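Q: I have two molecules that I believe assemble together. Could you output structure tokens for the complex as a whole instead of separate predictions?
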Amino acid sequence: MSGTRKGMNRRDFLRLAAGGAALSLLSACGATPTATPVPPTATKPPAPPTAAPAAPTATKAPAPAATTAPAPAPTAAPPAPTAAPTQAPSMFANKFSNVTLKIIASDLAYTAALETMFGDFTKLTGAKINYEKVTFPVANTQEELELSSGSSTYDVMMIIFIKAQKWIQAGWIAPLDPFIQNKQLTDDKLLALDDFLPAAIDPFRFKNQLFGLSYIAETTQLIYRKDVLDAAGFTKAPDTLEEMGQIAAKVNKKGELAGYIGRVTPTEAHFTWPIFVQGYGGNLFRDPPNDMTPTINSAESVKATELFTSLMMKYGPAGISNFATTECQNAMSQGQAAIWLDALGIMGPIIDKTKSKVADKVAFAIAPKGPAGRFPQIASHGWMIPKNAKNKEASWAFIQWALSRDVILQTALKGEHAGVPRGSVLANADYKKKYFWAGTDVGGLVTEALKLAKIAYRVVPEFPQVGERCGQAIGQIVSGQMGVKPALDAAQADVVTLMQKAGYTIKP
Amino acid sequence: MGLAYSKPEVRSVQTPGQVAGRQAMRRFFIAILAPALLALFLLTIVPFIYMVVSSFTPWNLSRPNSFRFIGLQNYVELLRDTRFWHSIGIQIRITLLGVPAMLTLGMLQALYLYWSRLRIMAYLRSFFIIPMVIPPIVAALIWRILFTPSVSIVDWALKSLGLPHPVWLSDPTLALVAIIIADVWEWTPFVLLLLLAGLQALPEEPLEAAQIDGATRWGLFRYVMWPLLQPTLAVVVLFRVIDSVRAFPLIYIMTEGGPGFATEPTNFYAYTLGFSHSEVGYSSAMVVVMFFFTLAVTLLIPRFIRWEVDSA
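A: Yes, here they are, computed for all two components at once.
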């Protein structure tokens, strides 16, 4: 038997171990279990979408992937809104005082301005708001995870048009028509459904039902350095894509001023590329949504892509094949680029005098046209109610309030939120005064673009994958890995496989 | 003549009380470990099994009724998927170029710190591990800025000196090199820490004996330290090979797998399929293949290590 030894005896050890185990259990209680996705319960088969957007709807590519800068501070005090502050319809007064709405959206100019007004909603309805703002790509991924697991965490979510059909047809979103038709829940005057631009809300329709309402309806516009073009002898903005290429060639100064910039990352390159493809008479599908045969490598598409990629390869800045939203904003606002054709919603920092060196030197124009016509792209983001949301009536009250004419006008006047979805706001005198940027009636540009856009190819459930595959092909071309035809041929083959897997019949 | 000697067998005789005590101790340890094992089972084993089951289905989260058994179809499709094989090639390059670089740099730093007589190194030592403690997303952002010509101070300096200043992230070859550089910068401190601990745990007698015999530092390292460090090196290599398969933040922030597919390793491809496209079934098959591939590598590596070193 050994002699007495110092140190812990068995009883002490057991006490210490028990205490440590108890602490471990307590700390483990704070861990959030991993949510395992649940198979969707909707029974509808993955049939090709039968509901087409009613008209060649609006909505060009939204500010994708890279975060759109949150509303930059206006350079001058905004004019006082002419609309009276939002008044509570009596039907909502204190109706939801026991409710806290959980809302998620990406941080854009509209949501940043709306967040400052949440107190008004609480005063009017009694409901509190727990608002989660995340960057655009994170919002999309997180929302999809929540929806696919059947979660009831959120009461109101952001919906973007390129995901809308996928989410709607998966049965993840509650239709709004029962709410709209229920006059106990809807104030028609507040909602003013007819005031929404059809192009803005049509992407959220399926089989004649409405599943979301838009808060952004933005379009692709051309932003260019007026002083640079004037010095080069061009007194007006390019009207055609070919002219744009000629101007870019003339003004390009390697290492100093890029003649043209654009987004080229895989998840963003496909937003402006269709302006060229459609402008040359092509499209991503033969006749979307009726004939979803991919036509990515058609002769028209190849010709369009040759121009699109050559602009960036010849006249783009160093590193262009890795350019996303932030890089384009930086290049343009620091005076390193002459022309940028892209979403209006991400151009705010360029006209912000606190951030941009060229705020006074840029001008806007409508997207140039190709031989087959002018096809600006549009984007629509909006609000929707998840199928399993716990407080649907309060959610609907929030949507009516947040998208009311007064609130939309106020958010447009408080922040740099030009892409509004309501006709009355586009026509409002204060809005027009504020959004007379660089001598251009931006609201007028938006309205005109909304009429011209042809984006039926985007509002199909499989488009996110198709768009990304096309974006990768563009990246391969711009980085010199592949020529235009081989890259588009490879993309075409992959997209055909993808569409066949999704159940489409591909016609030769 | 030597005497044959055999160690006598000693059988310990335990009282019933001692036997009962050992059994009670064993039950106590099991009871203490049970909650942790249960958590491990629920949070790791069960999801893994679920993933393996999913890999035999064409499950797409946005398509109802897609959770049905289709046998090995996903695995057969993987064999035909050129993008998958391309991503395997990218992954192998990241591992084969990155891990040796980390080992070399980590070993050099560990030797320097081990042999350094500067007292201040004891305080400066912690600066060496800063890259490892920075959140991976922040590290990725730092390197993205450094590799973006329009905002990079490195690019500006090279340009000012008239030196070549390539556009790393736009070049299909250099983009992968950029990822590897960032990965090596981030995880070399991990290698340094383990190797330094291994060096400090080396027995002193053989080192002193070699020094007395006139061994140079290179000789000391080559013939004494290196063999003794084999087990530590095996652990380091295992960890780094496994971690190199999970180099996700760098890819996501710096290149998103581009330009084209030039920097898309298998885990990023699987992420894109599973999270962006909701193709959970196919992505699960891909991850299962990666798992067994990584398992095979981790089982093979120890076979090349001499675990026992002759003392003579």
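A: One point stands out. Chain A touches chain B through 63 residues (CB under 8 Å).
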